[in-house]
Amino acid sequence: MTASLMALFGRFGVTAPAWLWLLPLALLPLAASAQTRIPVPALAMVPADGLSRLVDAALTLAGMAAIGFLVLALAGPHLVGESLVRTGEGAQISLLIDRSGSMNETFAGRQPSGPEESKAAASRRILEGFVGRRAHDLVAVSAFSTSPMAVLPMTDRHDAVRAAIRAIDRPGLEATNVARGLGLALAQFGASAPQAARVLLLVSDGAAVIDRRVQPLLREEFAKIHPTLYWLFLRTAGSPGLADRPAGEDTPQAAPERHLDLFFKSLGVPYRAFEAESAQAVEEAIREIDRQERKPISYTERRPQRDLAGFAYGLAALAMGLLLGAKLAETGLATRTSASRPAASRETRRAA
């Protein structure tokens, strides 16, 4: 309890401290009273009156409070903001989103018309919902087509994450350079020790050949960071699946998706691929990832500065109201007002 109070006082601050020099004025009610003095011939004639003494002390305190809180309100009191480290459920998620031109087509492989959604639009809508359901995740967003692009670094500002995801349905380029995109997505985790489970989620409707000279570098980075890798493969209707062997020679050039899947399986990290041929399938895959990746994570809760000036003005007004009521009772204004009403009524009746 004492520690909590000390912490609360430690957060207290004022915007204009010069006003606090007027705080000694709050002692004025101890030196002088606004109540009417009634002279008596001898103090011995005054009977002991505990209630009057109590009322006098209460009015003195009210006068001190009125001046003190008014000065404090002018100084701009507030509780400074703070950051609290808490523990919740979530993960560090690095989103890697394909922005190649084919993402602007529907799952049927044509340009969207009417109510149809492109693969990019469907992914955007579902990923926004995914981020909205996971309050404590740290999320980074990267995109790739010809070159990788760091859209947003790892953050818990989910409004910014959703804005970054909304940008993925902008028209992209034709080429797909997945190797450089993977390198950027891995770099988004940073070099520090992981504070939670790490997830790399690749959203793509195709693949490209990863140069054999680049593969060892990617293997090294995956081994160092050791994320759980998910590939959400947005498969166009009629296109080969990840397990389909080509009719001719089985090479990365002939079946890039199949060989990218084999490369991912050889990385030695937890890996799972989802082949989605519709927006509903994408949604089911995202729900499954949501269920799998809920582990303890430390996150920072930011509390903004809290203005207390209104509270101080309210207390000053309450104290002044008490003083005003006491003064009205002392002068008998209320009694005179009620006594004058019958007379006024009689005059009115006579005039009538």
SSE layout and pairing:
Elements: H1 2-10, E1 12-14, H2 28-31, H3 50-74, E2 77-79, E3 82-90, E4 92-98, H4 119-133, E5 138-144, E6 148-155, H5 158-166, H6 178-187, E7 198-204, H7 215-225, E8 228-234, H8 256-265, E9 271-276, H9 279-292, E10 295-303, E11 306-307, H10 309-331, H11 333-351
Parallel strand pairs: 4-5, 4-7, 7-8, 8-9
Antiparallel strand pairs: 1-2, 2-11, 3-10, 5-6
Helix pairs in contact: 3-10, 4-5, 4-9, 6-7
Descriptive terms for the model:
rod-shaped, alpha/beta, 352 residues, 11 strands, 11 helices, 42% helix
How would you describe this protein?
The longest helix is centred in the N-terminal third of the chain and has 25 residues. Helix 4 links the parallel strand 4 and strand 5. The model has no long low-confidence stretch (mean pLDDT 83). The strands form three sheets. A six-stranded mixed sheet has the order 6-5-4-7-8-9, sandwiched between helices. The protein has 352 residues and is of the alpha/beta class. The protein is built from eleven helices and eleven strands.
